[in-house]
Design goal:
alpha/beta, eight-stranded parallel beta sheet, two-stranded antiparallel ribbon, 43% helix, 11% strand, binds 6-deoxy-beta-L-fructofuranose, binds manganese (II) ion
């Protein structure tokens, strides 16, 4: 078993990125249930994200989504975030909510529409220059609903052309993260439907392009940790959009639906030394894989349609911490020995023992050692912040997806 000091050090170094849109109203096509106290602008979203970092200590970054987080002065937004102890992270482009994009954005048969979409992607890089963000995150709703609607290969050419133009605009220290999704809103083809398609485009683009694995974007039964292991080996795992689901892209709290899957995923990350730059795998020299040099962004991408949003984000961060702690507790030498010996049961037991370890006392102790309350949710609820924002945030328009 790995020594607990090393485990605690790794947990202290691991950071989680929060989605600004999780603090706004969200829902399904059936209903968006508004909640009192919801932010009315990106500044208030940053205030709420700072609360999550304040109580967990490991979430100092908030991703933004454009135009949902459009402001006149992005440097001022960054300064406001910094004043609250966090920073602006990934800039998410949005070319899926304009009437012009009915038949697609950068894959649209109409060059005028493709130019419009590309201009937005480039504008997002301009915003990254202002916020000091490293990551441009690209998810495209582009696809078709009926066979024959458009030419599958021609759409891929249009996609590659636009991605190359964005890639060329990236500055030093900037990169693009391409996110795939099996379906929805398109229901026949999606132009970036799976990890293979995303990987092919990123390999064609170059070292500044990596793949994002959104845990809700696969067909039922897909082995996501296998995909993670392959992308890590290819040096192309740029990040995660963590959430969980029972059926489709449910965007529920990470770890809520399948906590064991999250541990299996984090086991691949920890084993590869990709938890944070310079993470030691704690394995003996012989079995240490080539260290991963591409930083992985651990982002949450969730919608709290019915539950209170800030405590839900705090709970989600804790779920990731618990999965990481369990992955760090895997006896990697015993596991490697059993695997090489073909001892199936012993190998499986090495992973199950870590998974079945109650890591909550370890995490509570770590929080106290770092000056935090042992139970972040209880501490937040006792703070009165939730009641304060309900009282203060009267008037104005609650933030949402604007869909
Ligand atoms: C698409 C997605 C993408 C975001 C959006 C909020 O389903 O996962 O990452 O842009 O959700
Ligand atoms: Mn996502």
């Amino acid at each position: 078993m790995r020594d607990l000091t090393a485990v605690k050090d790794a947990l202290k170094n691991h950071q989680i990125e929060l989605p600004s849109w999780a603090f706004g109203n969200s829902g399904t096509r059936f209903k968006v249930f508004g909640q009192p106290g919801v932010p009315r602008n990106p500044y208030e979203k940053a205030d709420d994200a700072a609360q999550v970092h304040h109580y967990t200590g490991v979430a100092p970054v908030m991703a933004v989504h454009i135009p949902w987080d459009k402001v006149d002065d992005y440097a001022a937004l960054s300064a406001h975030a910094a004043a609250n102890g966090i920073r602006i992270g990934a800039v998410n482009a949005n070319v899926f909510q304009d009437d012009d994009y009915k038949l697609g954005s950068i894959c649209n048969p109409d060059p005028r529409v493709r130019e419009k979409a590309l201009a937005h992607l480039i504008e997002c890089v301009d915003i990254m220059d202002a916020t000091g963000s490293r990551d441009l995150k690209l998810w495209f709703a582009d696809g078709t609903n009926y066979p024959g609607q458009d030419d599958i290969a021609a759409r891929q050419d249009r996609l590659a052309e636009a991605l190359a133009a964005v890639y060329a605009r990236l500055g030093d220290g900037q990169r693009l993260l391409l996110e795939y999704k099996l379906f929805e809103p398109a229901f026949y083809t999606t132009d970036v439907p799976d990890w293979g398609t995303a990987l092919l485009h990123c390999q064609a683009l170059g070292p500044k392009a990596q793949v994002v694995v959104d845990t809700g974007h696969h067909a039922p039964g897909v082995n996501i940790e296998f995909i993670v292991a392959m992308l890590l080996k290819a040096g192309k795992l740029g990040g995660f959009d963590f959430n969980s689901r029972f059926y489709a892209d449910d965007d529920l709290m990470v770890g809520a639906a399948d906590p064991f899957q999250l541990v299996r995923i984090m086991h691949e990350v920890v084993k590869a030394g990709a938890l944070y730059p310079g993470q030691s795998t704690g394995m003996t020299a012989a079995s240490t894989p080539t260290p991963v040099t591409v930083p992985v962004a651990f982002m949450l991408d969730q919608c709290h349609n019915i539950e209170p949003k800030i405590p839900a984000q705090i709970r989600s961060v804790m779920n990731v911490q618990e999965a990481v702690a369990k992955a760090l507790l895997v006896d990697t030498d015993a596991l490697a020995a059993a695997q090489l010996a073909g001892d199936v049961l012993a190998a499986n037991a090495a992973l199950m023992d870590a998974y079945n370890t109650d890591v909550r006392p370890l995490l509570a102790e770590l929080r106290e050692e770092t000056g935090l309350a042992p139970d972040p949710v209880a501490a937040y609820l006792a703070s009165g912040y939730g009641e304060k924002i309900v009282a203060e945030r009267v008037g104005g328009t609650a933030a949402g997806w604007g869909a």
